[in-house]
Design brief:
The complex is a heterodimer of chains A (340) and B (340). By secondary structure, chain A is an alpha/beta fold. Chain A has two domains: 2-194, Thiamin diphosphate (ThDP)-binding fold, Pyr/PP domains (Rossmann fold, 3-Layer(aba) Sandwich), CATH 3.40.50.970; 206-339, 3-Layer(aba) Sandwich (Rossmann fold). Chain A is built from 13 helices and 14 strands. Chain A has helices at residues 7-21, 55-59, 70-82, 97-108, 111-114, 144-148, 161-173, 222-237, 254-264, 279-290, 313-319, 323-332, 335-339; strands at 2-6, 25-29, 63-65, 86-93, 124-129, 154-156, 178-183, 190-194, 206-209, 214-218, 241-245, 248-250, 267-271, 300-303. In chain A, the strands form three sheets. Chain A has a seven-stranded mixed beta sheet, with helices on both faces. Chain A has a five-stranded mixed beta sheet with strand order 9-11-10-13-14, with helices on both faces. In chain A, helix 1 packs parallel to helix 7 (161-173). The N and C termini of chain A lie far apart (49 Å). Chain B has 340 residues and is α/β, with parallel strands linked by helices. In chain B, a hairpin with a 2-residue loop joins strand 4 (194-195) and strand 5. In chain B, the strands form two sheets. Chain B has a five-stranded parallel beta sheet with strand order 1-2-3-7-6, sandwiched between helices. In chain B, strands 4-5 form a two-stranded antiparallel ribbon. Classes of the chains: A alpha/beta (340), B alpha/beta (340). The interface between A and B is large, with 47 and 56 residues. The complex binds thiamine diphosphate (TPP) and magnesium ion (MG). Thiamine diphosphate sits between chains B (83-84, 132-134, 161-165, 190, 192, 194-196, 261) and A (30, 68, 70, 92, 96, 99).
């Protein structure tokens, strides 16, 4: 059975289903129940934006509110994972990773390799990413490249409710540490989501639009901007863009990207992260190396500027790559269309 | 603001005087508290209209703490604030119109609209920023105190943090650092009983925060944070001691938060009638006004006059913030050392 479900509820459902399936799945985070020890309603919040709301009623003490101590509870989730549990820890905003980075960078990410393959660390760290929420410089960053850079971590960033559910289920079942990035401006977006559990394998990109003239590669919120740009280009310039949603950044599906560029001969990478050492530079470099012969134009990158996220809506609206900027980048790969 | 108070000397000479402050100082204290209250009450109203972007955490109910402490400081003393920072800013002398404009994301704001409510700063006033990262101010203020100590200028640093943020490693590490370096730092724990929706009793292992201070070798004082005079006296003694080289201390202010964690919080974790009870019985402004008028030092008419003046100030701040220009697009990429 499939029905329309929001991104937020799809995540809630994935957590619920996996908790039912596997008693080793536990949830920890700040106010994921919300109301612990307080005189009023328990489960008052269900997470800062209500993503885990209702799960306390179903699973009780398998959800644990934590003190405001990210190093301690993220580290505890990692330690418990190394001892056979499957914790899903919520970090609220990925920006807070700064507080507990050692536990991720030097502990979780390295156990398997450093201990000669003897350890596994099936922890999931869920966190909100991205700008557009007026949440300012310390609650809005797209830090996906930082985690993608680290060997031993898997990095997931879904663009829609269907993928969010399937990828979160896969993340929980996966035996490695997963950084699960939820774009806060996608929570309300809806898609058809089957009620049953299903897992979407890592490293399988999704071709969300077919096209012969240019390949646009993106992930997360900007997939929708890329689709918008593709529609405009089709109408206005007759350019048919193929749009690829990477879905997982580590592992990454190079085959789908290369195959597409070999057909189109042109590449635009759209990344909400800052431009240097980003997913955009990573994909552009790989394509330049592996498919140089197929390229008919220089690869283009559309990213956030090299700045922190500004607060003022007037500035923040200019920060996230827009459909217009993506369309302009596509036209740069088509000099003849620009001239026309 | 810098007001000399007889209580700055720790001799306790005036401690038997029911109103141990000159009239001018009392009026100044009332004005500061009233300004904070009106600023916050007005934000509550404007936020509900949908005019104010982002996360807004109100300090209403907690005014006596910021005011009682800041009256002992000069512009060259430094404070590090929190996400709930408006009260600290106002009491430290940050311009109210600029603050309001910042919260509206306008170019005339304290940070030219780039920071927002959670990042208001004015270094010229010794205000090192509100902060979106819990516990982040504590190490920074150790640095400010270290700088003061190196220069031998008698400056002190005050870091504010909530009962929730008290559990951040950065705060605990900083207490130890301040102790071993004998830094002129006052750690001000603003205990309003809640961290978001979670109760302080749930999240804290000790019954008494002073035990933590003692554990780090710091003296600690706990006061009723709704009693301006209690805060003012305790802070005055601790600050005078720190200035004189007597080292760091913890000051716990027990207080109440009149509104939700942030604007839009339904507050169902609170007890029924809790906010009404607090407004009736634990309103630091009312307690202060009753005390100074009952003692016959300040008249009702003087209070009423100041109320009108402050109301006008806030009106002006809101209307000038609303009509102020948006930041220009160039602001997006200014203030970084390089643009790519
Ligand atoms: C490192 C970090 N973790 C979590 C948060 C989210 N957060 C913001 S305020 C808050 C509660 C703070 O409670 P407390 O310290 O008691 O201050 P209060 O809000 O009561 O003034 C939380 C969890 C954050 N901003 N930074
Ligand atoms: Mg609190």
């Amino acid at each position: 059975m499939s029905r329309t479900l929001s991104f937020k509820l799809a995540i809630n459902e994935a957590l619920d289903l996996e908790m039912r399936r596997d008693p080793s799945v536990i949830l920890l985070g700040e106010d994921i129940v919300g109301g612990s020890g307080s005189p009023g309603e328990m489960d008052a919040w269900g997470g800062v934006l209500g993503v885990t709301k209702g799960l306390y009623g179903k699973h009780g003490n398998r959800l644990m509110d934590t003190p405001l101590s990210e190093s301690a509870y993220i580290g505890a989730a990692i330690g418990a994972a190394a001892c056979g549990m499957r914790p899903v820890a919520e970090l609220m905003f990925l920006d807070f990773m700064g507080v507990c980075f050692d536990q991720i960078l030097n502990q979780a990410a390295k156990f398997r390799y450093m201990f000669g393959g003897k350890a596994k660390t099936p922890v999931v760290i869920r966190a909100m990413v991205g700008a557009g929420f007026r949440a300012a410089a310390q609650h809005s960053q797209m830090l996906t490249p930082m985690f993608t850079h680290v060997p031993g971590l898997k990095v997931v960033c879904p663009s829609n409710a269907y993928d969010a559910k399937g990828l979160l289920i896969q993340s929980i079942r996966d035996d490695d540490p997963v950084i699960f990035c939820e774009h806060k401006n996608l929570y309300a977006s809806e898609a058809d989501v089957p009620a049953e559990p299903y897992a979407i394998p890592f490293g399988e990109a999704n071709v969300v639009r077919d096209g012969r003239d240019v390949t646009i590669v993106s992930y997360g919120l900007t997939v929708h901007r890329a689709l918008e740009a593709a529609q405009t280009l089709s109408k206005r310039s007759g350019i048919e863009a193929e749009v690829i949603d990477l879905r997982t950044l580590s592992p990454i599906d190079w085959d789908t990207v290369i195959e597409s560029v070999e057909n189109t001969g042109r590449l635009v990478v759209v990344d909400e992260a800052n431009p240097r050492c980003s997913i955009a530079t990573d994909v552009a470099a790989y394509v330049a190396q592996q498919a140089f012969g197929a390229l008919k134009a220089a690869p283009q990158m559309v990213t956030a500027p090299h700045t922190p996220v500004p607060f003022s809506p007037a500035l923040e609206d200019l920060y996230i790559p827009s459909a217009d900027a993506i369309a302009a980048a596509v036209l740069k790969t088509h000099p003849q269309a620009l001239a026309a | 603001m810098s007001i000399t108070s007889p209580m700055q000397t720790a001799d306790g000479a005036l401690s038997n005087n029911p109103i141990p402050l000159e009239k001018d100082a009392l009026l100044a204290a009332y004005r500061t508290m009233r300004t904070i209250r009106d600023f916050e009450e007005r934000l509550h109203v404007e936020f509900a209209k949908g005019d104010i972007p982002g996360f807004v955490h109100l300090y209403a109910g907690e005014e006596a703490c910021a005011t009682g402490i800041m009256m002992h400081l000069t512009d060259s003393d430094r404070i590090a604030s929190t996400h709930r920072g408006h009260g600290h800013c106002i009491a430290k002398g940050v311009d109210v119109e600029e603050m309001m404009a910042e919260i509206y994301g306008k170019s005339s704001g304290s940070c030219r609209g780039k920071g927002g409510s959670m990042h208001i700063a004015d270094l010229s006033k010794g205000m090192m920023g509100a902060n979106g990262i819990l516990g982040a101010g504590a190490p920074l203020i150790c640095g400010a105190a270290l700088a003061a100590k190196c220069r031998g200028d008698g400056g002190v640093g005050i870091t504010f943090f909530g009962d929730g943020a008290a559990n951040q490693g950065t705060v605990l590490e900083s207490m130890n650092l301040a102790a071993v370096w004998n830094l002129p730092v006052i750690f001000v724990l603003e205990n309003n009983g809640y961290a978001e929706a979670t109760s302080v009793t749930y999240a804290t292992g000790v019954d008494n925060f002073l035990d933590r201070a003692h554990g780090f070798g710091l003296p600690g004082v706990s006061v009723d944070g709704t009693d301006f005079f209690a805060v003012h006296k305790a802070a005055g003694e601790l600050i005078a001691k720190a200035r004189a080289g007597g080292g760091p201390a913890l000051l716990e202010c027990k207080m109440v938060r009149f509104y939700g964690h942030f604007e839009g919080d339904s507050q169902t974790y609170k007890a029924k009638g809790e906010n009404d009870f607090n407004r009736l019985n634990r309103d630091c402004l009312k307690i202060f006004a009753d005390r100074v008028t009952a003692a016959g030092i300040v008249s009702d008419a003087e209070i009423a006059l100041m109320d009108r003046e402050v109301a006008n100030l806030i009106d002006d701040a809101v209307s000038s913030a609303k009509s102020a220009p948006q930041p220009t697009p160039q602001e997006l990429t200014s203030d970084v050392y390089v643009s790519y």
